[in-house]
Amino acid sequence: MWCSRAAVRQVALGLRGTRRTMATLPRVYVTRKVPKQGLDILRTSAQVQIDLWDSDDPVPRQELLQKVKGCAGLLCVLTEKIDAELLDAAGPNLKVVSTMSVGFDHLSLDELKKRGIRIGYTPEVLTDAVAELTVALLLATSRRLIEATHEAKTGGWGTWRTLWLCGYELANSTVGILGLGRIGVAIAERLKPFKVKKFIYTDVAPRPELAEAIQAEYVSMDELARQSDFLAVCCALTPETQGVCNKKLFAKMKNTSIFINTSRGGVVNQEDLYTALSSGQIAGAGLDVTTPEPLPTNHPLFTLKNCVILPHIASASYTTRNAMSALAANNLLAGLRGEAMPKELRL
Ligand SMILES: O=C(O)[C@H](O)CO
After folding, report:
1. What number of CA atoms fall less than 13 Å from residue 324's CA on the CB side?
2. Taking a C-beta distance cutoff of 8 angstroms, is the pair 248, 217 a contact?
């Protein structure tokens, strides 16, 4: 457990404005060594006792189940499954779960709702970083950068050849976005200067307020597959989107298309993707997310030259990770005070 000696001695103003000793402050469990900004916010608030899993690796499940007992708040990351078992172990004291992520597929929303537990998450602060990485991954995949550096390093670079390592360019292309939200818009804004001809998107319903900013046309899923030269997956993983990128979708795509996923691996049927890539049904795929994570190094997708796989780093900039950790801490504290959270996931 983390607690500075000064903090332990401190008589603090408790969450309801009463003077309380540190020992009587609500206990929060932080499931990972989150960036300093967030921890500093919790530490200097003098409103909570912090119990920290002080490691870059996930807390073992049994340890987590022990540690959450009696906690009022939980600050977690996306690798922790917050389900009925964990909530039962925590008990009725648990008031707030704050996840340092925009994705919330690791949270059992029904179970949280049933228990009246409030949820904080971290949208917006990571939009720029995720959009930037998505563009980088798209270009790395479509212009075959990973293959190219490999060839250059390993002697494959012979003479200049006319069609060697040719890829596909964004100029005059149609870019499709599956799930238009802030991140999809931010990706499109960054791609526009590459002279994209047209943006199209699909979602559960048209989103004109977002689409207008990037002049994107709402189309059906089938049209999205048929028209997109580049298809970027930006939707949340939900029961509805689970496995939605499957053989039916890939079969409708052009054999010159590039598929990019920076949302969640579960949106994609990876066996179908492997078949589509290895048979030439689509030209390439760039994945920042997979199922499982980490993807085993002997996974068939790693054998394909036309598949670029990153280890879930879309939001991994120092600025963004610090901002996510600060927002997660502020969400947690506000929730425990019974105030509006800066970013609450409303159920
Ligand atoms: O959900 C998220 O926040 C991303 O996948 C990681 O930053």
Report:
1. 28
2. no
Confidence check: pLDDT of 12 > 90:
no
Ligand 1: does its nearest atom lie under 6 Å from the Cβ of 214? Answer: no
Residue 138 CA to ligand 1 center (angstroms) comes to 18
Does the active-site annotation cover 106? Answer: no
Q: Residue 3 — pLDDT band, cuts 50, 70, 90? A: very low
Tell me which of 18 and 61 has the higher pLDDT: 61
Task: Give residue 264's pLDDT.
Answer: 98
- What's the rounded Cα separation, in Å, for the pair 123 and 192? 23
By CB atoms closer than 10 A (0-12, 13-18, 19+), residue 333 is buried
Q: Say which amino acid occupies 179.
A: G
Q: 327 in ligand 1 pocket by Cβ < 6 Å? A: no
For residue 14, the model assigns a pLDDT of 44
- Which of 102, 325, 327 best tests ligand 1's pocket when mutated (most atoms within 8 Å of CB)? 102
Q: Do domains 27-123+319-345 and 145-155+165-305 have the same CATH topology?
A: yes
Is this prediction's ipTM beyond 0.90?
A: yes
Is beta strand 284-287 parallel, antiparallel or unpaired with respect to 258-261?
Answer: parallel
Ligand 1: does its nearest atom lie under 6 Å from the Cβ of 103?
Answer: yes
Residue pLDDT, tens place only, 154-191: 999 999 999 999 999 999 999 999 999 999 999 999 99
Residue nearest ligand 1's atom 1 by CA = 103
27-123+319-345 folds as Rossmann fold (3.40.50)
CATH class of 145-155+165-305: alpha beta
What residue spans define the domains of the chain? 27-123+319-345, 145-155+165-305
Q: What is the pTM of this model?
A: 0.93
Q: Is 315 in the pocket of ligand 1 (CB under 6 A)?
A: yes
Answer whether 14 contacts ligand 1 (Cβ < 6 A): no
Tell me, in angstroms, the distance from the centre of ligand 1 to residue 103's CA. 5
